[in-house]
Amino acid sequence: MLTMEPKFGKMLLVGAIFNCLDPVLTIVSGLSVRDPFLTPFDKEDLADAAKSQFSRDHSDHLALVRAYEGWKVAERDFAGYDYCWKNFLSAQSMKAIDSLRKEFYSLKASAYTSHTHIYI
């Protein structure tokens, strides 16, 4: 059994209900690990510009989703580390987000086969 904060569990349930589980998985996973957006002391302006390309003047949550999606594409091309380096992202955090997404997604499959009741 995977433990998580109740608010994250609710987010996952609502994401499944409204058929938008994929980005919610990324957001919940991203909020559960160290912030993947790096801000080196001597390159704050460049790091802020890199993050703003993902947010496009919207929320940090959408920036996280876009950064993760780009990282996944780069990973398929064996360029995940380069992607992180160029975009001031923590490769370790991105891998942790990916791992947590898989764990959280497995809860969906087990929820359909479980005989326990879940109350919100």
Automatic annotation (TrEMBL):
Record GO terms (molecular function): ATP hydrolysis activity; RNA binding; RNA helicase activity
Domain Helicase-associated as annotated: residue spans: 1-65
Keyword terms: Hydrolase
Family annotation (Pfam families): HA2_C (PF21010)
Catalyzed reactions per annotation: ATP + H2O = ADP + phosphate + H(+)
GO cellular component term, pick one: nucleus
E.C. number(s) listed in UniProt: 3.6.4.13
Keyword Hydrolase: yes
Protein known as: RNA helicase
